[in-house]
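CORE FACILITY INTAKE
Project code: CF-77B
Contact: R.S. (postdoc)
Sample description: multi-component assembly, two entities in total
Requested service: structural model of the whole complex
Turnaround: standard
Below are the sequence entries exactly as provided by the requester. Do not edit them.
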Amino acid sequence: MKTRRLVLLGSIVLVCLVLITVQSRGRSSGAGDVVAVITTPIQTLLARVNRTAFGLWATYLDWKNVRAENRRLRDENQRLRVDALQIGETVDENRRLRRLLVLRDRLPLDTLTGEIIAREWGGWVRSLTVNRGRNDNIMRLTAVIGPDGLIGRVVDVRPGAAIVQVLTDPASTVGAHVVRTRTSGIVEGEARGTMRFKYMARDGAGILVGDLIVSAGHGGLFPRGVPIGRVIAIDDRGSALFHYAALAPAVDFGRIDEVLLVTGDTAHDIAAHFPVDG
Amino acid sequence: MKSLFALTVFGGGVAHLTLAPALRVADVAPDIPLLVVLLLALRHGPEFGGLAGFAAGLLQDAVSGGLVGVQALTKGVVGFGIGTLGGRFSVTQPLVQVPGLVLLSIVEGLGRFVILKLFHYPAAFGEVMTYVVLPQALYNGFLGAALVFALAWAESLRARTS
């Protein structure tokens, strides 16, 4: 009995170590693909069920308020409220999709729209799962943007889905600059779910709270000029070589439902297509 | 046993995908599959705990896009460990449940950090402990205790009706 247990524990450890070692040596994970084939349709279904369930819950709460407000008109009011909620939700969805489509049509880039089907928000990894994958010719390191700014990059591609590492992921780094002063630096994600702009102290004396940080476009990974965030605090480290600025993200990663995946050449400055005053 | 195993792995995964984002408090989400594995490992022993932890972790690894195998390893080992130790401790009291779950979550988090660090995970130890491991461990402790209470209540209700 004891031997059987030890063999089981040893097998688990061995299988995991083999899996990790194979991936760390740059070989694609077949196990990941196999699991993804099963999990992607489930994730898609769950994302829909989740949204529907929360929509129904919100409808129920409104229904309770209406009933308390006017008992005599309860039935009529309920129907109207439910209708209004449905219309409001549709209008909201239409507005989001229209903004995305307007952006897609105006951008001088080849893009593909995608829907978020899952979010990983545990702190170790901050990622979104998009319903576009290998079947849509999505490649690793594809840039992902939204109407408000930069979202992240694709770090893993599965047959029907792709994992997007968002900018607040602790492993995320993006070359960026301050629009007003042109100070260059790097935007890094932090484990607490925030972002910071790291810059050379001698170049960043003029950075102020409220300054807009955009992608630098170096390296050909991200297009130039995509908003990343605004400076909310400056961490002046005296005589240190690098100073840091805390950023408020341009994109609300927790609420985004649709994204654009940049499938073609990214060598363009697209700053003019994003809001700079918001 | 097989259906319980499938329920643990997929039920925990489904709960993690649907409930965890909704249960987020101050950007801290509970690790529901870990809770499910730990609570069932206590009842069903080390083989169940080890295998369920391994499978649930593998599913989470595949979904999150991290290194496939890291959570499978830590959850498998923790599930096996608690399954082995479970028979020797009384875990019916909240004074044992909450600190126990907090401690096990911290152990699992430390294990993940050590493995990820071997593969050049960039975040610092203090930062990960302060903003990820400890808040999630506390959340796991209280949520897990609530889950134990709910299960005990459901069982007593079932016993009364049957």
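Facility notes:
- The two ends of chain A are 65 Å apart (CA to CA).
- Chain A has three helices and twelve strands.
Invoice: internal transfer
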